[in-house]
Amino acid sequence: MTPHNHAKPGDYAQAVLLPGDPLRAKWIAETFFEDARLVNSVRNCLGYTGTWKGKPVSVQASGMGQPSLSIYVHELINVYGAKALIRVGTCGGLNAAVKVRDIVLAQAASTDSAIVKGRFGAFNFAPIADFSLLRAAADKADAAGLRYHAGNMLSSDIFYHENGFAGYDKLPDHGVIGVEMEAAALYTLAARFGVKALTICTMTDCLITKQEIDAEARQTSLKDMVTLALDVAVEA
Ligand code: HPA
């Protein structure tokens, strides 16, 4: 038990999916898990454990942004023994070749966050996905015929950038393909504590073309993404 999580040791599986939204955690548990049971509801930041294809798996909402995710991930690893953490979320697009509905595998995560920078003094640490999870996700996405891109994600601490897109146009110039708010902290904590992590996002709004996903496509692509993440998680 922690101030943020009332689950008991053993309540989480070693593989944990991490959506930002608590209601998405509930939806994942109710839609995909067999024998789903609620293990955490502190702050309504819901966590569930069940099985997928007969293998144990959990889902825990991370909240929005790197500070919130860092609390849940730190505790999942150090209190509950999580070994493979897969964020499932949405991202904005920073490259016109990435279409809404496409899946983005965050091979690396650049960031403006002091959470990462603050650890390394003069050095720029490169937060990266676990290679075995990344390779499994790419192989399974290929096999399922999903459109996906693997590349550098921006994990920004700011959603409403004062200068809009101009605030970070150097990043797409250097091949960064999407923007979300959590992956860099997840990868940094996973590296620090020697566990595996990956971020899989559905691109929902392109900052270049202004294309936005519609409600029906959002639901279908979320299902594709969660199925992919669960298949990777239970083999991790
Ligand atoms: N910025 C940050 N996070 C996001 C975005 C965005 O534009 N779209 C979906 N998640």
Molecules bound to protein: hypoxanthine
Shape: globular
> What is the total tally of β strands?
9
Roughly what percent helix? 25-40%
> Which strand order spans the largest sheet, edge to edge or round the barrel?
5-8-7-6-9
Largest sheet: 5 strands, mixed, barrel
Low-confidence stretches: none
One letter per element, helices H and strands E, the order comes to EHEEEHEEHHEHEHEH
Mean pLDDT: 95
Gyration radius, in Å:
17 Å
Total of DSSP H or I helical runs spanning 4+ residues: 7
Q: Strand pairing plus helix content: what structural class?
A: alpha/beta
- Classify the beta-strand content into a percent band: 25-35%
Q: N-to-C terminal Cα separation, in Å?
A: 25 Å
